[in-house]
Amino acid sequence: MFEASPLVNVARALRHVEVTKRPLMYRSVTDFDPLSTRHEWEVDHGQRKDERQMPANLEEHAAKLLDWLYASYNSATPSSDIDSYLEENGLDIRFGLDVVRHLADTGLVEDVSTFGGPGALLNHRGIAAAQRRQAELAAPRRRAEELRRRMLTWLDQEEEADRIPVDWSEFEAGANLEATGGSYSHRDVLKAAQYLHHQGLITSARLDQASDGEVRPHLTAEGHACLTDFGGVVADYLARGSRGTTNVNTTSTTINVADNHGNMAMANKNVVQNLNMGLDVTEVLNLAGLVGQISQTLGLSDATRAELETEAASLHKEAESQSPNRGVMRRMIDGIVRLLGEAPTTAAKTMLVGLAEAAVQSITGS
Fold first, then answer.
1. Helix (H), strand (E) at residue 329
2. Which of 118, 144, 146, 323 could disulfide-link to 113, CB 3.0 to 4.6 Å?
3. Tens digit of pLDDT for each residue in 159-176?
4. What's the half-sphere exposure (Cβ side, CA atoms, 13 Å) at 298?
5. 3-state secondary structure 90-117
6. What Rg value do the Cα atoms of the chain yield, rounded?
């Protein structure tokens, strides 16, 4: 007769161990059973991990979790426990672990996950990135762009569910109007709908008392392309092919890294402030340094990635020289943006193109 090994007996015994670290969410856990192919997690509402749907957008939730952690950091009772965030957004533990690892890989949080579940602590880079993101999202142009993205995304979700909305009332009834800098108004929604209609991204029914895009809104082929190819960022979609560099919304998480050695630009005034007529190369160093650190996450071919890293290294060397040439740096930045154009649309790419824009502005003054 088959006799279980001591390891199997230990694993079975662990099935009855109470998880005391996170009593609000988990009561017990089958961590690993060598005789079973399933891992089960009991939660207070009775739903198991493998019954929840895995959301598709890792980077979107990484940005949202960063905001959530920053709000927790500023609260009276800051915590590394992200159970509440997962519950609020209908996310499972496995996805929560992936989001935390993603933020940890970008250097914004410390991964403090345990067998009890995922956990994260903001570090100094995460706090700075969250503050910059909050400021950017509160800017009028960013707010308008974010609202348009949400509206396009909602229409796509309605279409996937075989629903054609009568108007935007269902969109306004959810949490879609909540935003940094104050909630969006009904007027904001109508203005955005009119803009999307005029740009050919949505169609609508024509009524005498309704504005364009207000009644029976529906995505066009162009609207789908904007979502699929540009993540719903309308400015990026409209600017495609119109100039050498791309105007990208930088509402995604931003990291400020100065150089390839991991030194912050603000740590050394001599590095940042070049004496050549007061030329400030901080943003240039930020761009060059970050390219060198995250180029492997951009989804580029080996040849393109190598070319991108070489361009970034050259830009870094020029910016640190005694007399950096503005024209040379501008051409190098344009070269970096051109190579980034071959990468799929991700938060990392958006971040880099945003830094490239800032670098250009810092050396040209426009």
1. helix 326-340
2. 118
3. 999 988 999 999 998 778
4. 29
5. CCCHHHHHHHHHHHHHCCCEEECCECCE
6. 24
